[in-house]
Amino acid sequence: MDIRPGDILKMKKKHPCGADEMLVIRSGMDFRLRCVGCSREFMIPRNKIEKNIKSVSREEKG
User: Fold this and answer.
1) pLDDT of the residue at 61
2) Is 11 left (phi over 0), alpha (psi -120 to 50) or beta?
3) DSSP state, residue 61
4) What span, in angstroms and rounded, lies between the C-alpha atoms of 8 and 23?
């Protein structure tokens, strides 16, 4: 799955604040994500996050 920093991930489950969108800050073996709703940052392993992604949105530059 091609996920890059700056992408917005729409998740199957909501964050405790109620938002279901996460901003990708860093990607690799694990992701650093920022909740769009409450701005909390957290790290989560790639295998755990990939199965919970509903959709990926990205601003195309060019």
Assistant:
1) 62
2) beta
3) -
4) 5
Strands 30-35 and 21-26: antiparallel
* Entry pTM: 0.86
Query: How far apart, in Å, are the Cα atoms of 17 and each of 21, 22, 40, 57, 62?
Result: 11, 12, 10, 21, 35
- Identify the DSSP state of 12: S
Unique residue bearing structure tokens 């990607």 = 27
Q: Kindly list the domain boundaries of the chain, sorted by start residue.
A: 8-57
User: pLDDT tens, position by position, for the chain (62 residues)?
Assistant: 789 999 999 999 999 999 999 999 999 999 999 999 999 999 999 999 999 999 999 876 64
Please check whether residue 4 is in contact with residue 61, taking contact to mean a CB–CB distance below 8 angstroms: no
Give the length of the chain. 62
